[in-house]
Amino acid sequence: MYRKESLDEDSPASPTQDVKSDSTFRIPLIDFSKYREASSLSEKRRTADEIVNGFKEVGFVYLSGHGIRSDTVKTVFEKSAEFFRLPMDVKSKLAWDDPRANRGYVQVGRERVTQSSDAAEIAALRAKAPDSKETMEIGRDWDTTWKNKWPHESDVPKFKQTMLQFFQTCHELHTVVMRSIALGLDLDEMFFEDKVNDQCHNMRLLSYPPIRSALLRGEGQARAGAHSDYGTLTLLFQDHVGGLEVQNPHTKHFQPASPIPDTIVVNAGDLMARWSNDVLRSTLHRVVAPPAKKVSETETITPARQSIAFFCNPNFDAKISCLPNCGKDPKYAPVTTEEYIVSRLAVTYN
Fold it and tell me: Which Pfam families does its entry note (predicted)?
């Protein structure tokens, strides 16, 4: 039988620090420049082991020294905010409409991320506690079947150019991180190279509008519900506001993953867990309300929040099955990337 079994306070951990209790739990902070600039395989292997150990224990790491300039990230955030400020009737013309494409604008309340795969259950959750966020989904622009949905250049000047350049930058970083994971799993450094080179990724721009705190106090309410990601890795760029929480896989309690300037939060996704036979963890996480501002004697309001999530996926036709050195008894049936991701997306949106 195949089965699926199913962070952090203000300072990150060293990769060897105990993380099994909430009092000592931290997400490892790893200087990835030591891998990128290494002059020998043994130097690379030291950083690769840190990354793989982080994914084994926590499922999440912070990467510093990743090579993406802070001014580049700042520009992407500015263009994202500019897009979300457009009138709703303009954004609605770019609406997301197909899980196979996974492109376009998603208005507040349309998505309900969850671990459930039951469409009726998700619909009930969405009606009761929809995610209080809006997103813009962007894929590879040269796809011959599925096209991105771009605003007019006059509405958001240089939006398309900025996002396509950043998409490529994130793909290149993902490729290098996958090389480090291969090394850390005792595979050839280039093992994943021809399995992730088609750029079948999804770049998600996220905007969390200000919301009255009372609306987030109901049962199951959150800015984004508890979920795991679907692909190999997620590269998450946070603003300063905070709100991301990661489940300590050892205690099952959620811990804040506080923003650290000039770092990227990187987590393993479901397909990475399946590939590694759960040697690497696909950890639950959610977005909750950060500290709120008082607006009256009886009410507070949470600040707006922005983030950018680059969901890294294997090639759509890649067969994800247990790696040869990750156990003799596979927990999962083989599946292609496209089969898995489309099935998850199809029930997540209305």
Answer: 2OG-FeII_Oxy (PF03171), DIOX_N (PF14226)
Strand 60-64 versus strand 29-31 pairing type? parallel
Instruction: Give yes or no for a contact between 29 and 65, defined as CB atoms under 8 angstroms apart.
Output: no
Predicted confidence at residue 346, as pLDDT, reads 78
Sorted by where each starts, the structural domains of the chain and their CATH numbers stand as: 29-348 (2.60.120.330)
Amino acid of residue 296: S
- The single-letter code of the amino acid at 206 is L
What count of other Cβ atoms lies within 10 Å of the Cβ of residue 60? 26
The neighbour count for residue 85, using CB atoms within 10 Å, is 10
Q: What is the pLDDT of residues 212-253, one digit of tens each?
A: 666 555 544 455 678 899 999 999 999 998 889 999 988 999
Residues 6+ apart with CB under 8 A from 61: 27, 28, 29, 30, 50, 51, 54, 55, 265, 266, 267
List Cα–Cα distances, 350 to 102, 104, 139, 201, 245, in angstroms. 13, 14, 20, 22, 25
Backbone angles phi, psi at 56, to 5 degrees: -70, -45
Q: Using CA atoms, how far apart are residues 12 and 94, in angstroms rounded to an integer?
A: 39
H/E element holding 267?
strand 264-268
DSSP per residue, 124-181: HHHHHS----EEEEE--TT-SS-------TTTSTTHHHHHHHHHHHHHHHHHHHHHHH
> Residue type for 117, please?
S
- pLDDT of 8: 38
Dihedral angle computed from the Cα positions of residues 142, 309, 66 and 313, in that order, rounded to the nearest 10 degrees: -50
pLDDT digits (tens, 9 = 90+) for 266-320: 999 999 999 999 999 999 998 876 666 666 776 777 778 899 999 999 999 999 9
Reported pTM: 0.86
